[in-house]
Amino acid sequence: MNDNTSKAHPSTLAIADYTYQLPDERIAKYPLAERDSSKLLVYRNGTISEKVFKELPELLQPNDCLVFNDTRVIHARIHFQRQTGAQIEILCLEPVEPEEVSEAFTRKKSTVWRAMVGNGKRWKTGEMLTRTITTETSSYQLNVEMSAKEPDAFVVQFSWDADLSFAEVLDDVGILPLPPYLNRNTETEDEERYQTVYAQANGSVAAPTAGLHFTKQVFDALQEQQVQLLFVTLHVGAGTFKPVKSETMHGHEMHKERISVSMNAIEKMRDAAADKRIIAVGTTSLRTIESIYWFGVKLLAQDHVKEFFVGQWEPYELADRTVDAAQALDAVLKWMHENAQSYLSGYTQVLIAPGYQIRLANALITNFHQPQSTLLLLVAALIGKDWKRVYNHALEHDFRFLSFGDSSILFRD
Prior knowledge:
- By secondary structure, the chain is of the alpha/beta class.
- It folds into 2 domains: 10-72 and 193-411, QueA-like (3-Layer(aba) Sandwich), CATH 3.40.1780.10; 75-175, no CATH class.
- It is built from 10 helices and 18 strands.
- The chain has a 10-stranded mixed beta sheet. Strands 5-6-7-10-9-8 form a 6-stranded antiparallel beta sheet.
- It starts with 38 loop residues before the first strand and ends with a strand.
């Protein structure tokens, strides 16, 4: 039975109700040899069946609209060493100065970032760490200094004495970060396989893993099937792995992630919302399009909204003001025109959990997520209590779990 229309506020949810036993051997530590050879669990009208991912186009109809997140994982992990010999690991999360992601990557000489710091207790504010970078063509120094400590992160300033962009510096010195639950070092193969084949926009510290199964052959088949392809950008932060430590969701602060979506994409989304099926490829794509909807509702409900932001609980507070999808997206497009913005850029902190009613997506393509995670709550919001049946089936039929694991397509009733 699907209970995703429940009106209970998700702040009262007990995370202990959204768990299952995940044996370590079921976590896919490495990808399969072929991206599209993974298993595909199909959940539709309460029934479960199995396919191979390359058969996905056969499950879709002409004019279905697939929404992809085209973010690209950056070489966000950098190692430094103090004069004492202590190792300091810096994981870049998001730019602070300049704040715009694209500008931060093209910045030369210096940039300020928010970061997680391993062994940070040994690193003092104002202490500069230095590393010499040697490439085939040059040698230069990269410096980093801690500017401030925040509750969940550090603010650090990088500087370097070469005529290079920060993106080039990261390519020289940074390491592609893998999810902590893989419990292994990054290997050469990961440079390709932990990116989607359509990744474009630098900015994530984790891949939108639902998209890892897509290949050129699958895209060709989708085009033959006349399926529409639509691309949005949500830069995945390390908060996607943040465990829920509170007993209820009231005590959990949802992570904030940056979104950038073109006006053209929102226009196509509005047209698709009228009479076509919208299928989100991954939880990040779903969060993106649902956040855009709620921003539209917010614009219709409030005057003088200055920036694109959707808070953790705002959809539940605005629920009595809901409008149809086209009306909400039209409000967003009008706001963009009035503010001369060709891209809608801002942040979402939305928590999609049971009690939330999905507004734009008719289905979700996604991997299998960790127990007691906000991603599992999102799946439960989409298909209700049947999430347990889906996960039990996957466990009993040798599906591979998490980032490099198998896939599913979950249709809403």
